[in-house]
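Can't paste images in this forum, so I'm doing it all in text. The chain is below; anyone willing to post the predicted structure tokens underneath?
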Amino acid sequence: MEPYKGVYETDNTNPNFVFAPCLKQEHLNPNTKQKVKVKLAVQVLSHSIAAGMYAKISQGELSSEAVTTANVIANMDKLFDCVNARTPDLRRGKPYSTNMTNNTPHLTHFTLMKNFFKEMTFLGCKRAPPSQEGWIWSINGIERIWRNLSSKHKSIKSLETRRLQQDPLENIFGCIRANCGCNSNPTAGQFVAGLKTAVLSNLSFIGTGNCEEDQNQVILTNFKSLLSPPTDTHTAYATILTDELEESVNSTFECSLEESSGEIQACAYVCGFIVKNNLNKCEICKKIFVSETQERSHTFIDFKEYSDLKKSLKYASKNLINCIESSATMIYDFLEAEAYKKKLKGTIKVLFKNSINWKFLDECPEHKDMNIDYLFNSVFHICMKRFCILKNRQFAEEYSASALKRKIDILQNK
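Text version of the structure:
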């Protein structure tokens, strides 16, 4: 756990941006209930944490021994992507999240991970846990399904591995059981009656279980159109920043920051996403926002790349990184002092335009105002969301501490 603690403790010293925003104290010291949560385990074995470890190792903030831990995390993240592939093209630049074909790296990584699980040993355990052998069986099953499908059916060019799960079956059985009352062991006739009722109710289910929706509405398209008159629907699509933009903000502030610091590297990563989501395709603006050379502040971005051959992420310029860092600091300081007031966004926007140096945008006067508005909306969205998360986390910790103190006082008859 030492590499994780190193990442967590270093992130806590960053003023505004962090490498692993999802990493919390409950990941390092989970209680009995938290130890069985899949969500926490997956967050610990993520590509972002591995990239953060690599960056800190390269800066000497973590020992070289942490490379082994980072390699395991990176390989497990790739394995999760391999068994959850659900798109025919690159999703966020992740090659292992694409559908499995003979040309994708899935089979090679499956072989690597099977050897890893076979050689894995758990210190202090007399026998291997079932999940160790279970991973090998699951990988062998996926490989066999692909071999059979690709050899017998030439029309099948790819496999969406995320579909190889039993959630749809569990969902339909849950619908049937819900229509059978308190009968936990229905007869064949009751089962058929429950199935008919489920079909008539459009396979609706409670939705609070541990299964994801299986898009069963496509099965009942004709049935729905028979009972429902045709209507015209119009959906307005709003341009929003990706969730990964919200994952890189922290709450502390230090005045002087070096290019190689974790704060600036995390800020550069966020700036890359801001540039990527900018709808302005002006070449002059692109030169303003994107760096022509790779700097020390881009170390974390380099480790975040999924391929060494092709660079898919954006490398922001120094001016943009300094602008976003200063803006985030200004917004957070204002929220700390004035968050209770009304019309926060308008007030912060005026302060934002007046206190930040915008001279680097003068190269494109045509789009200067538009770029300022875009940068403000991006940074404000990030900082406001993160500020609320951190405050809610702080209030929850204070409440837990007060509740514990109250229980101790009761036990001590105070």
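The chain has three domains: 2-163, 167-227, 248-400. The chain has a mean pLDDT of 81.
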